[in-house]
Amino acid sequence: MSSKIDIIREQYPDVLIMDGFDDCILGVCSRFGQDDIAAYSLNKVIDKLTKDGMSVEEAFEFYEFNQLGAWVGDTTPCYIDTLEE
User: Fold this and answer.
1) Model-level pTM?
2) Cβ of 79: how many Cβ atoms within 10 Å?
3) Residues 6 or more apart in contact with residue 67 via CB below 8 angstroms
4) Using alpha carbons only, how large is the chain's radius of gyration in Å?
5) Full pLDDT tens readout for the chain, 85 residues
């Protein structure tokens, strides 16, 4: 059985995937007239960063600057707040 990342890499070869955050990916976001992009769970990204030793505040700061703020072209990933606690 293929993992979600394997399927994305096979079916959407131009989608950018963040290294080390495979377990945070929700899927692929399709937008009219634009490239498909990887969609990540904001909640899982923050949880992963805190499990790696950051405080919640540090995790949000890291996310906002290094992930959300890292424009790498039209296939830059998006982050979805799944509104989980």
Assistant:
1) 0.89
2) 19
3) 18, 45, 77, 79
4) 13
5) 678 889 999 999 999 999 999 999 999 999 999 999 999 999 999 999 999 999 999 999 999 999 999 999 999 999 999 887 5
